[in-house]
Amino acid sequence: MTYSEVVRRLALSLVAALVAGGVLAGCAIPTEKWTDPLPYGEFEDEALDAVNVYRVSDGVLEPEPSARAEEVWDAFREVAGERADQIREMRAGDSGDVDTAAYVSHDVDPRFWVLGVNLAYSRDPTMRETLVHEFAHMLSLSVDQVDIGRLDCTTFEIADGCARTQSYIVAFDDEFWKDYGPSAPAADNGDPEAASALYAEHEADFVTEYAATSVGEDFAETFVTFVAEPTPTGQDNSLVADKLRFFYGYPDLVAERDRIRSAAGY
Fold first, then answer.
1. Higher-confidence residue: 100 or 174?
2. H/E element holding 67?
């Protein structure tokens, strides 16, 4: 089963995350300022309902997590590599009544992140790809990619600030989203109907329908395909193939792909 086929099974959970706030399963613009750290214990989370909160210290969850929480954390560490050290807190819910599978959001110190996971999906075959998707947001929405806290954007607003001129997202937007014109969903789009409308007109341009949500979601969804599937051949002239070739233009992203494929068993 290809990634594109797998992700359609989680389309509802990814879209549902848009309403929860934060960079949730890919939502580009949080509805509240950076995430304040929570003490240990059980709390209510906007996306996951009841969660157990774990602090991350030297790559270890504290207090001692459940077996499934540790499984997901270990899987994320495989995906994120050294960047897993940027996770300050993991919030683990466990509800089949909640559609959200995972999210990342900026910590109160935006150099760091909070990871939210729904353990009800922990052994779903899509979880690894969901974690890769969230890792793509960490790559594209980090402080070296986004001027956090800035409001007077010369590019566009995304993830609590302005996308930097030399960022992946701005380059991706310039190459693949400018031609859609003003009718395309904005970088902070949270309306699944807008995504559906764009996808209906340009289905062949996207790896999944969810990718049509915004340029940030397109970047993250295409990054998953970049990691999970073979390099497109020279005979493939589709826009999706061109998007995949975009990532090959960045040696650092190619290195991340190679590392993830090796560590996560692709």
1. 174
2. helix 67-80
Closest listed residue to residue 23, CA positions, set 117, 110, 104: 104
Question: What tokens appear for 37 in the block?
Answer: 């750290």
List the structure tokens of 8. Answer: 């359609």
Side chain identity at 259, as an amino acid letter? R
In sequence order, what are the residues at sequence separation of 6 or more whose Cβ sits closer than 8 angstroms to the Cβ of residue 258?
none
pTM: 0.86
The total of other beta-carbon atoms located within 10 Å of residue 243's CB is: 24
**Higher local confidence (pLDDT), 8 or 225:** 225
Task: Provide the token pair at 74.
Answer: 């270990």
CA distance 192 to 23: 15
Cβ 188 vs Cβ 215: under 8 Å: no
Q: How many Cα neighbours within 13 Å face the side chain of 240?
A: 23
How many whole angstroms from its chain centre is CA 244?
Answer: 17
Q: With cut-offs at 50, 70 and 90, classify the pLDDT of residue 235.
A: confident
Q: What is the DSSP letter of 49?
A: E
Q: Provide the β-strand partners of residue 162.
A: 147, 157
